[in-house]
Amino acid sequence: MTDIRVPNDFVAVAMAQLSTVPQNHTPKDFVAIDMTHVSTVTNGNLNKETQDRDVNLRHEFRHIFRLMGLFGLYFTPQKWRKQNDTGSCRGFLLRSHQFYCLFVQLLMVLNGAKSITGLWYVESRLLAMQITAGAWYVLCAANAAILYYICSTDKLPEFFNVWQTYCQPSSRSRMFGTCAASVNRRKTLLFVWAIGFILSNSLFTIFSRFGPIESLQNDTHFLVAATPEPVLVWEVTAMFSMISASAAFVLPTALLLTFCSIITFQFCVFTKRFRDCMTKETRFKGCLMSLRRQHQYLSKAVFLLDDTFSFYLAVNFGALLVVACFLMYQLVVAQNYRNTMTTLLTVFWLGMTSMKFALIGVLTAQVPEKAHDITNYIHDIGVFGFKGHEEVTQMNMFMAKLNGSSISLTLWGIVPLTKEFVLTVVGVYITYFALVAQSF
């Protein structure tokens, strides 16, 4: 008899698939296991799909976390620090980096307070720009404080743990195979946008404050929240704080929207898998309990992500809307004390504010849209398309979940970020300024 050996990696992937099947199901239900996750081994070498099995989401974001840590916006949460790092050199470095993040945050708070107090001595022609700069510095300081709080808790590790344990193992090859190109492309575009804003904002500020044009230096005190009598030490410190504030304005948003993109693509993959379990005779041939649990795990990931970033979304969504309205009013209605520099600066800030608002609105609204998209296919299943009463009960529970509260991110748990809400806000914004522009 020929001795047949099954590779360990084949068994490991098969067991990961079997773990999603309920224990009380009969052997015939195991046919629903997606065997496309099982990779073959040829000449002792794993193919690329099997090698991707051990890739985790936290590892994929390590460069982003390092970039945020450079600007004092991220430090390693306590739950991710190893037990033996408490008294070691690595533990000392981790604690030192946490104090560095706290120092950067205090600098941004100081810069924001200095920018607000500058309203009392700024010239009238620069008052609108000073108000905008003060609001921007306060928003960036608030973002840094929120990120410091998130890193001080276990919310981010809990999200990664749930994703790694329940969401990723049942669809590893899909996550890093079929959807990897789309996710990586969107992640790259988001962080190119973020780094582009940091560089452009920083270079313009450095040139305006320390460049050869004296009139430009006099008109841009508000950009670094300088004192009436400029002091070199404070200007350099404020410049560093301004660069960190630029990072605090865009990097957390890029990180959050990348998470939203990954979850959105996973819901799309789930919908496709559910659709493949439907026959032309409107019957359902898959393991419904396993699919319902997988959808439940993805919904739990959305809940944890919302629990982590809901306050951040509320602060930024409201502040961006107010700042955009103020800048639009200055650009369309208020034309006093305006010159070329202030006009260009207003257009730049309005463009970046509107772009960030649009990205948050569009990409977060895709999450509930894709999470509830499966409802359309459930209604296509015939009345006699199920195998028994157990599957009918499972489907009723599934429909109750989908027809309940929206599976979405929220503004501090109050308003869900859905496509209808975002379109309503944008419609009110455009209508208001159309009416204001006609009255002047």
Structural features:
440 residues; mainly alpha; two-stranded antiparallel sheet; two-stranded antiparallel ribbon; 16 helices; 2% strand; globular
How is this structure best described in words?
This protein is an all-alpha fold. It has 16 helices and four strands. It has two domains: 54 residues, no CATH class; 384 residues, no CATH class. Helix content is 68%, strand content 2%. The strands form two sheets. A two-stranded antiparallel sheet has the order 1-2. The longest helix is centred in the middle third of the chain and has 45 residues. The N terminus is likely disordered.
SSE arrangement:
Blueprint: H1 8-18, E1 41-42, E2 45-46, H2 48-51, H3 57-60, H4 62-70, H5 89-117, H6 127-152, H7 155-167, H8 172-178, H9 180-210, H10 214-218, H11 232-276, H12 288-332, H13 340-371, H14 375-378, H15 389-402, E3 410-411, E4 415-416, H16 419-438
Antiparallel strand pairs: 1-2, 3-4
Helix pairs in contact: 5-6, 5-11, 6-11, 6-12, 7-12, 9-11, 11-12, 11-13, 12-13
